[in-house]
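We treat protein structure as text, and this decision shapes the records that our systems exchange. The tokens are whole numbers drawn from a learned vocabulary of local backbone shapes. One such record is reproduced below, unchanged from the form in which we store it:
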Amino acid sequence: MLHWNSQVCAILNEPGGEKVYARSLTYLMAGLCGMVVVLSLFIQPGLRLIVTPGFYGAGVLVPWLAAAYLMRSLGAHLQSVFTAEGKPGLEARVNTVGALACFAAYALLIPRFKLWGAVAATLAGFFVILGYGFWEAQRLRRFHFEYRKLLRIALFTAVAISAFFLLRPTGFWLQSGLAVLLTTAMPYRCTLAASTGRSGTL
């Protein structure tokens, strides 16, 4: 993000810069979703190598936390338009609103749901930052993002992770084998979704 924010002004001032900005979100989504799949699937056999059985259950938290930080990264990308348009105050406003939402969710959910409450609160806070940041960014300067491609990438990611947890492989080798199978298919699917098909706009 540090590199991107230093380049975004020049990119948007070039001919076709808005298309580059929109397409970069698609490829960022594809790359990050691939990382989410890797983290979510390989954490299961990975835990068997580094912790005792009492901690194996922590693996189910990883897909949700990875999804939260995926949203946070996409939100940061969208907020870069505030830098390009000379409106850094909007970034501070969006992050403040998100922080308040996260704090409120912590206060409400952790006492009742404990660890899962903390996970849900993190998801809620980052979702608010993503949604509110998108809304403010589009008000400031409207971009036509590739919504259909973004949706397909998200669906491929959800299917890969859901398939792993629905099949519930047991043992290190079964978990590793299925994780390899699903993650090797994921980059192909995401790249295909990112590079082909017509753009969808709201």
